[in-house]
Amino acid sequence: KEAIALDDAAFGASIDSLLLLLISHPMHADAALTLLLDRYVRCEPADINPELRDFSVRLWGNPWLAANAHQWQCSREAREMVGHWLKRHLLQGYFSIFSDEAENSRRLNFWELYCGDLQGMYFALGKCAFTYDNLDIYKFRQDARDLVVRLTEEENGDIHAFIMQFSRQHVVEFNHHTDWAYFYDTRDGIPPFYLSKGWVDAGALSASRMTQGAHTAPLSTSLRHRDTSQLAWEGKFARLMGSSENSIREFCRKYHCRHEDLRAQGGREWIRLTDLTQCGVEGWSVLRGWGFNPSPDKRGYYRG
Predict the structure, then answer these.
(1) Distance separating alpha carbons of residues 92 and 107, to the nearest angstrom
(2) Which residues contact 82 (CB under 8 A, 6 or more apart)?
(3) Between 101 and 61, the higher pLDDT residue
(4) 286, 110 in Cβ contact below 8 A?
(5) 3-state DSSP call for residue 135?
(6) For residue 154, which phi and psi values (nearest 5 degrees)?
(7) End-to-end distance of the chain based on CA atoms, in angstroms?
(8) Which one of 7, 107, 133, 221 has the largest count of C-beta atoms within 10 Å of its C-beta?
(9) Of 109, 111, 223, 95, which Cα lies nearest the Cα of 161?
(10) What φ, ψ does residue 50 adopt, rounded to 5°?
(11) What was the pLDDT predicted at 213?
(12) Distance (Å, rounded) from C-alpha 231 to C-alpha 225?
């Protein structure tokens, strides 16, 4: 209680020692963690705190799964904060550990734009994720517990799939960037790889060939991570996914731009460049996919 009465800076600096205190006094962990999370969500800014994230998830489980709802005794805002931290952590972990793009972070950069819109995620992992003596993979499976199932094909043990759940699209990305990405429009029905309780049907999520059009299952839209002379692949993906407040905010944070929406005053919506803006062709392609056009003075992109 003394700690949560401190100012933001002093409180943030005390988090590590407070968590060590709770590890030594587990009987008080539930009540104390509620105080810590409800105080932290009010910090300006409430930056990602990996230690607080990991402690919370170990104690109360995955924050967005309904089965754990009774464990999360903090406010809804604090629970959503930890949920966002965990989604970003798992997204980064998947592409850094399993992806074949060791020197290419393009897929991670793209999907980070949509991390704030993720409603859930699952991982269908091949055999090697359960047999290799790899500490990073073991830690990832622990962090993603309750979200991991096995792919069934023994001959393709090094193939893994990441299923991202958005309100309008469910997206499947395999670990090899040469594989297609599959987009399932939720307006067409439930994707074929989900059971009634939300788990992944790994038998339908084939590592060698995606199941499509099975009886009442909706067809997917498939896109490749391949650039064209007109547009990088990020632009094609962005055109299909669309933009949101979260994705635009993350774009501006990542590339140091400024969002300005003047449509209510009869103007246009802008992504303004700043002196700190650093963005390659891939980033500009995202804006083109969202319907923004470069301004004649080259100081921004606009739409509307």
Answers:
(1) 10
(2) 37, 52, 53, 56, 57, 63
(3) 61
(4) yes
(5) helix
(6) -65, -30
(7) 50
(8) 107
(9) 95
(10) -60, -40
(11) 37
(12) 11
The phi, psi pair for 263, rounded to 5°, reads -65, -30
List beta partners, residue 183. Answer: 171, 221
Beta bridge partners of 258: 272
Structure tokens that stand for 60 in this block:
């109360």
Instruction: Please say whether the beta carbons of 124 and 191 come within 8 A.
Output: no
How far apart CA 142 and CA 62 sit, in angstroms, is 11
Residue 210: its pLDDT value, please? 43
The amino acid present at 208, given as its one-letter code, is S
DSSP for residue 200: B
- Give the C-alpha separation, 12 to 6, whole Å: 9
Say what the pTM is. Answer: 0.89
Find the helix or strand (DSSP H, E) in which 94 lies: helix 76-97
Which residue matches tokens 């501006």?
Answer: 252
**Structure-block tokens of residue 217:** 């299952």
> 97 φ, ψ to 5°?
-90, -45
Please, are residues 117 and 246 in contact by the beta-carbon 8 Å criterion?
yes
Which amino acid makes up residue 35?
Answer: L
Q: How does DSSP classify residue 153?
A: -
Tokens of 211: 């199941």
DSSP state of 189: -
For the chain, helix, strand, coil in percent to 5 are: 45, 15, 40
Compute the average pLDDT of residues 29-56.
96
**Which residue has tokens 């550990």?**
97
Residue 2: CB atoms within 10 Å: 6
* Strand order, beta sheet including 257-261: 257-261, 269-273, 300-303, 293-294
